Amino acid sequence: MIKTINHSVAFLQKKATKATPMDSAVVTDLMDTLKANTQRCVGMAANMIGVNKRIIVVQMGMLSVPMINPEIVKQSGAYEAKEGCLSLEGQRKATRYQEIEVKYQDQNFKAHTQKFSDFTAQIIQHEIDHTNGVLI
Hints:
Belongs to the polypeptide deformylase family. The chain has helices at 9-12, 24-36, 118-131; strands spanning 43-45, 55-60, 63-84, 91-105, 111-117. By secondary structure, the chain is an alpha+beta fold. The two termini are 27 Å apart.
């Protein structure tokens, strides 16, 4: 179901709690909401739709890839990026890494560890920041 975008800074700054299989409907809602905002958004975290769980969805080409309980375990190649956010006005600077390695669970709660680089890595870092209550 397409959800309304949350703009409450106080809510967005709360650290999200670990997701469980009971939160699987949130993944569907996130994917639907990202699809509805595809013209202006390439990633989304659950707190952006008012759910304080560690769930993100990242647009990778034509695919929307959900990541449950994502955690960056390695990073390299720091740089400064200028980013916008659907939940916030304007753009801000953020330190990002060119390459990252992420541990996460898929929609079926199967564990994965995967490397990402470039713009995809930047999107994932932005969304994981959301799960940690970190805003740009």
